[in-house]
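Subject: Re: docking follow-up (S-adenosylmethionine)

Dear J.,

Thanks for your patience while I sorted out the input files. As discussed at Tuesday's group meeting, I've set up the holo structure prediction with S-adenosylmethionine included as the bound ligand rather than trying to dock it afterwards. The sequence and the ligand SMILES I used are pasted below, so you can double-check that they match what you have on your end before we go further.
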Amino acid sequence: MATSAKILNPETCTVNEDWTIVLPRRGKKGRNLPRIRTPEEQQKPWFPTEMMVIYGIGSIESYETPRLQLSLAILMKRKLSWIGDVEVFDPILSATESRVLESLGCYVLLVNEQGRRCAIKPTLFYMPHCEAELYDNLLQANWGVMLKGMVLLGNSFETYEQHVLEYKSSVIVDTARHILAVRKLTQEFSINTVSDDYFAAFHDSSWHFFSPDVEAKLQLTEI
Ligand SMILES: C[S@@+](CC[C@H](N)C(=O)[O-])C[C@H]1O[C@@H](n2cnc3c(N)ncnc32)[C@H](O)[C@@H]1O
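The structure tokens for the complex came back this morning:
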């Protein structure tokens, strides 16, 4: 794991006070009706909600790693009150896997966005061990001011940069142009895998936050 990256406990995350309330994007009958909060919920401090988009979860029927990664998403959704709708897309998901995801409260997307979702609402992207191209597409789609509206949990960008420096791989440079360019404006916090049981699911993964003055400094030509 990257040595200079810091460790973050997601429980202690705070939400930028400027962020706005996000209403459900699409929905089944009744989803847009305001939900009545229980007395316990009314006692809790209120936070604005944000979307969570999960790309590339993999086959939850076939492999333990995607199941562990999905478990983290569901735990975050349960524990962190600021997380709103959870949308999932992976082209390999079967109809059965999609139904399981829906039963767990996720919305399975029907369209392959190729990772190009624009964070017009504050959005948490969870992309466990996706290909570099997918992260790059996401960054390209949000290049500029919209980077401020997104947080990304996925492969360590610092590790991509180290690979480029070590192996001078032109393939990585080509597929990761935006990843490399955004590095100097990114605060990265690596996931510390405390047990070998979770290594396969969470190794080389980091939280990425993008600097507020991102607009002025984003220059692809510097790569
Ligand atoms: C390297 S696998 C990672 C799978 C799993 N998360 C893991 O760690 O084992 C990358 C995943 O990205 C998915 N993928 C490919 N293109 C995608 C796209 N356009 N949108 C979302 N997921 C995509 C693949 O189907 C695959 O399941």
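A couple of observations from a first look. The chain is about 30% helix and 15% strand. The pocket of S-adenosylmethionine is lined by residues 55-58, 65-66, 69, 89-92, 112, 114-115, 128-131, 134 (CB under 6 Å).

Let me know if you'd like me to rerun anything.

Best regards,
T.
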